[in-house]
Amino acid sequence: MRDAVCRDLAAVGEIEVFAATANDESVPSCARSVAPRSDESAAVFLRRVAIGMDAVCLIAPESDGISLELTCLLEGIDANIIGCGSVAIALASSKSRTLARLAAAGLDCVPSWPLATAPLTLHETWVVKPDRGCGCEGIRRLGRRDTESLRPDDDETMIVQPWLDGEAMSLSLLVNRHNDVEIVSVNRQHIDVAEQGALSLAGITRGVTVDASTRTRLQQLAAGIVASIEGLRGFVGVDFILDRRGTPVVLEVNPRLTTAYVGLSELLGRNLAGDILRATLPEHQAHV
Predict the structure, then answer these.
(1) Which of 31, 120, 124, 242 has CB atoms 3.0–4.6 Å from 167's, for a disulfide?
(2) Other Cβ atoms closer than 10 A to 4
(3) CATH T-level assignment (fold) for domain 90-113+132-140+164-269
(4) Sign of CA dihedral 5, 273, 88, 43
(5) What is the pLDDT of residues 61-77, one digit of tens each?
(6) What does the alpha-carbon distance between residue 286 and residue 176 come to, in Å, rounded to a whole number?
(7) What is the pTM of this model?
(8) pLDDT in tens, 1-51
(9) CA 226, CA 67: separation in Å to the nearest integer?
(10) Rounded CA gap, 261 and 201, in Å?
């Protein structure tokens, strides 16, 4: 993701691109490398580097509050963030809180419960996942009996959701500073399930064509999500199941760049990084 963004930003022109790196990792030739000093934490490094930059594109996971902490740091030094604000990240980092907010707004969402209090007799197959996690991290598909054996006495760090029949999909959205939202791409996710139930993302098909009715539903869903979650900006991912009725059912909202970004500019014939800059930077700076 970092390298894809760097290449797109460099192609905009008149932009000097810097890429964070560590452990002698290479960066694209279009970018200059910046690395932490031996005694610097990620937060100290980011603050030092960001102060000298016109804008910062943060690529960080929601896990363990990493994205939220670093975004708050950037907001604290009044940096121009090419992406979502801390209010959106604080909410979207919790799958259960996000789904509750969206459900309250009338959007179709997968039901979710803390593992300790889930009504496990309702469904034969469940998905168990961290409430705060990134991608398929720690996610398992389990039968009801297996899920019951995992139930802790009191643990709200894990949630359970019924396994839904349908297609695993995602939306790549572009949200501007006026809360206008564009569906950049509809994507199909190829999910592998290991023998013991662990889920992993095997691949993504970008630019999936859907019929006009489904497209309208997805546009309404995207608008509802942006209206419900304050501070969504730039590239936003939405994971959902397209059920047998053709209804999109939300699984989670990713307030950041996702793996679907990689290759999208070439596929769509547009420079997404340039579009994200224009969508998110203040009016007087969004001239690129």
Answers:
(1) 242
(2) 19
(3) D-amino Acid Aminotransferase; Chain A, domain 1 (3.30.470)
(4) positive
(5) 898 889 999 999 999 99
(6) 11
(7) 0.93
(8) 999 999 999 999 889 999 999 877 888 899 999 999 988 999 999 999 999
(9) 19
(10) 15
